[in-house]
Design a protein that fits this description.
Layout: E1 15-21, H1 25-39, E2 43-45, E3 54-59, H2 64-83, E4 88-92, H3 93-106, E5 112-114, H4 122-126, E6 133-134, E7 161-165, E8 167-168, H5 179-182, E9 187-188, H6 191-203, E10 208-212, E11 220-222, E12 228-230, H7 231-239, E13 246-250, H8 259-267, E14 274-276, H9 284-289, H10 296-309, E15 314-321, H11 328-341, E16 345-350, H12 367-390, E17 396-404, E18 410-415, E19 420-424, E20 433-442, E21 445-450
Helix pairs in contact: 7-8, 11-12
Bound molecules: 5'-deoxyadenosine (5AD) and iron/sulfur cluster.
Length: about 450
């Protein structure tokens, strides 16, 4: 597949591609890139699965429930495939990587299985010029073999906020996590590629870029000046792009929160005051069993340094409850850490044993007990989220309009802190970045008015 995109077929003749994306934002980005690659093959995106010539399921393997969704969705596709045997069904993403042949064995209706590091092979697979299952980790950077983002076609819609993957894979090997196996070793994309892609996005009207990676703050690379750059330096270089108003990044590991990155939060106005920094547990015993390689106190010290650099920063995190060996005291330590940090929002999950991970065979915490702990933690996090949202009322914040709201004349966009904000703004356009006075906090959004 060359970098040169072929002209898509006329829309009447164009084949239709339906993509369902599960899981994390890296999958959202990958789905866009696959849509672009298939666009070069004459496919246009459809939101209606029933009219699709090809259905691509871009899957997530992080917890058992996520992986099982694939099989129930494939089951639901059986009648459609029976009606139209030429319908192509593809499975991409981390379940494809982890379960490969098992997918085609369990679900013979699947035509092709492509792992997350092999998306550049997808067009050849669809043409029948590559094997049915491709899950190897090639030497080359898959992104170099996908169409350049400037060769956009109808497969990709315009949006003022975009994702840009700068780093993939993970070398941390947390004892519960499949990512090092499904996404492979940590790889950083080169500076020049990232800057070129960011400039292309901005030239197309993008005003906010979220830099993505499983360990995005572990990104490093040879800079334009010949020196080794860390992630903070990369952010400073991206911030120099004219017309780019906002930069975000996700997701990060506490141990890669280098000084230059913390300083970027102090110095770079485009870097939004929002940081997702998973801690998983507040108990040192459990953190050790999880192979997190930091203590609760180290995490708290890090939070202090980040808040010193950017006092208004909103912090979010991920938690796992019911990890093997977790006692009541360990759980209490997690609640204590949450109380101490005061998060803007957070994701919490019940531990799900994943085949192939070090923790898989360890004796599990009783399921009902884990459920109760999850509820208790979520209740606390929900209280903090509500308080953080209510604290926005009366403040004036930047809001980037992303789409029309539910009511006529209304727009909805994201605040600096990533809250959805509904604003009456009949004259406004998608892509406008405006100042909004926050009037009201609803359960999952804010309402505001245009500031004078
Ligand atoms: N069980 C439950 N939660 C998990 N996560 C990762 N692996 C598991 C697992 N086996 C959670 C972690 C991670 C987030 C993306 O998903 O909290 O940060
Ligand atoms: Fe998984 Fe840990 Fe790597 Fe995050 S840092 S992707 S939780 S192994």
């Amino acid at each position: 597949m060359s970098d040169q995109a072929k002209t898509p077929a006329a829309s009447s003749a164009a084949k239709k591609l339906f993509i369902k994306t599960y899981g994390c934002q890296m999958n959202v980005y990958d789905s866009q890139r696959m849509a672009e690659a298939m666009g070069a093959e004459g496919y246009v995106l459809t939101e209606n699965q029933a009219e699709a010539d090809m259905v691509l399921l871009n899957t997530c393997h992080i917890r058992e429930k996520a992986a099982e969704k694939l099989y129930s969705d494939l089951g639901r596709l059986k009648p459609l495939k029976a009606e139209r045997p030429d319908l192509k069904i593809g499975v991409a993403g981390c379940v494809a990587q982890a379960e490969g042949e098992e997918i085609t064995r369990r679900m013979p209706l699947v035509d092709l299985v492509v792992g997350p590091q092999a998306y550049h092979r997808l067009p050849a697979m669809v043409r029948g010029e590559a094997p049915r299952i491709v899950t190897d980790f090639p030497e080359e950077d898959k992104f170099d073999h996908l169409p350049a983002r400037t060769s956009l076609n109808r497969a990709t819609r315009r949006a003022p906020a975009a994702f840009l993957t700068v780093q993939e894979g993970c070398d941390k090997f947390c004892a519960f996590c499949v990512v090092p196996y499904t996404r492979g070793a940590e790889v950083s994309r080169p500076v020049e590629r990232i800057l070129a892609e960011a400039r292309d996005l901005v030239a197309r009207g993008v005003r906010e870029i979220t830099l993505l990676g499983q360990n995005v703050n572990g990104w490093h690379g040879a800079g334009a000046d010949g020196r080794e750059w860390g992630f903070g330096r990369l952010i400073r270089a991206i911030a120099e792009i004219d017309g780019l108003d906002r930069i975000r990044y996700t997701t990060s590991h506490p141990n890669d929160m280098a000084g230059d990155l913390i300083e970027a939060h102090r110095d770079v106005p485009q870097l939004m005051p929002y940081l997702h920094l998973p801690v998983q547990s507040g108990s040192d015993r459990i953190l050790k069993a999880m192979n997190r390689k930091h203590t609760a106190a180290e995490y708290l010290r890090l939070i202090d340094r980040i808040r010193d650099a950017r006092p208004d920063i909103m912090l979010t995190s991920d938690f796992i409850v019911g990890f093997p060996g977790e006692s009541d005291a360990d759980h209490q330590a997690t609640l204590d850490l949450v109380a101490q940090v005061n998060f803007g929002t957070a994701f919490s999950f019940k531990y799900s044993p994943r085949p192939g991970t070090p923790a898989y065979d360890r004796p599990e915490v009783d399921g009902d007990l884990a459920d109760a702990r999850l509820q208790e933690l979520q209740a606390l996090l929900t209280r903090q989220q509500k308080a953080a949202q209510e604290a926005m009322v009366g403040r004036t914040l930047g809001v980037l309009f992303e789409k029309p709201g539910r009511e006529a004349g209304q727009m909805v966009g994201k605040s600096d802190y990533l809250h959805s904000v509904f604003v009456e703004a009949p004259q406004a356009q998608i892509g406008d970045l405006v100042q909004v006075r926050i009037l009201e906090s609803a359960p999952n959004s804010l309402r505001g008015e245009l500031a004078a």
